[in-house]
Amino acid sequence: MERQQLGDRPEPLIAHRGALAKWIPSGSSGGTVRGVTEPSYLRDTRVAYDTVAVDYAELLRDELAAKPLDRALLGAFAELVQAAGNAPVADLGCGPGRVTAHLRALGLDAFGVDLSPAMIAVARRTYPDLTFREGSMAALDLADGVLGGVVAWYSVIHTPPDRLPVVFAEFERVLGPGGHLLLAFQAGDARVHLEQAYGHTVSLDAYRLSPETVAELLRASGFVVFAQLVREPDEREKTQQAYVIAVKRVEPELS
Q1: What is the pLDDT of residue 169?
Q2: How confident is the model at residue 35 (pLDDT cuts 50, 70, 90)?
Q3: Alpha helices (H) along the chain
């Protein structure tokens, strides 16, 4: 099985509910409203990850231990966020929470958000001292400019490419000036329809993305691209893996 059939979604909210209150608009219940107009790709993503949540978490539990380059990139991201003031970091598409926990171990005030209630349930059981909540990265229940960092670790891969500008604009909205964004995704230019993953039947599209296109969309959304990296697939992967670190543009003050 390819390591990222559904995406390496690390894959934050319970223990830090008090601290989180300052980031969420007043009157928010912290839940997700699922209207009849919800895009089908969001429903498909939620259903697929609810289906595989337990097995996904078990199979990828120790994945980072065997990925020194991934750890190095997460470490570099953590240092950048800390140097810029160490404001809170959202792990968007956090899945079972393992990357959220890694970010916390690196000294970041990290919390996780995921579309899948089953993934959030696994994350809360596994890391009861961290904060996790259900939500969509396309419509985050966070105030403007409250974050110092956003990590989307293989979590934009189920978003149709024509909807990525909406997602990137939302990342830009919740980041403060100079806030950092780290993306990981499979490189390419194709749509892959998944019917089996982690021993379960699913129906879900995954998109291989061009790093150059992603960088261009980020620039158009108000980011400065800081670094891009593409590595070759390992023995369990079928495609190149791409990483982008970007910074929210700081607008000059008017005199």
Answers
A1: 98
A2: very low
A3: 17-20, 40-59, 68-83, 98-105, 117-126, 164-174, 211-220
Tally Cβ neighbours within 10 Å of residue 234: 11
Gap between the terminal Cα atoms of the chain: 58
On the CB side of 196, CA atoms within 13 Å amount to: 3
Residue 156 near residue 93, CB atoms below 8 Å: yes
Could you tell me how far CA 207 lies from the centroid of its own chain?
15
Mean pLDDT estimate for the chain? 85
Which position has the higher pLDDT, 2 or 93?
93
Is 90's pLDDT higher than 60? yes
Given a cut of 80, whether residue 9 has pLDDT beyond it is no
Please tell me the pTM assigned to this model. Answer: 0.85
pLDDT of residue 201: 84
DSSP string, 210-252: -HHHHHHHHHHTTEEEEEEEEE---TT-SS-EEEEEEEE--PP
Of 84, 242, 85, the C-alpha closest to 152 is: 242
CATH number (3.30.450.20, 3.40.50.150, 2.60.40.1120, 1.10.760.10) of 36-248 reads: 3.40.50.150
Strands 175-186 and 147-153: what pairing? Answer: parallel
Give burial (CB, 10 Å; 0-12/13-18/19+) of 223. Answer: buried
Give the mean pLDDT of 9-31: 35
Contact 132, 104 (CB under 8 A): no
Contacts of 3 (CB under 8 A, 6+ apart): 60, 63, 234, 236, 237
Fill in the amino acid letter for 250. Answer: V
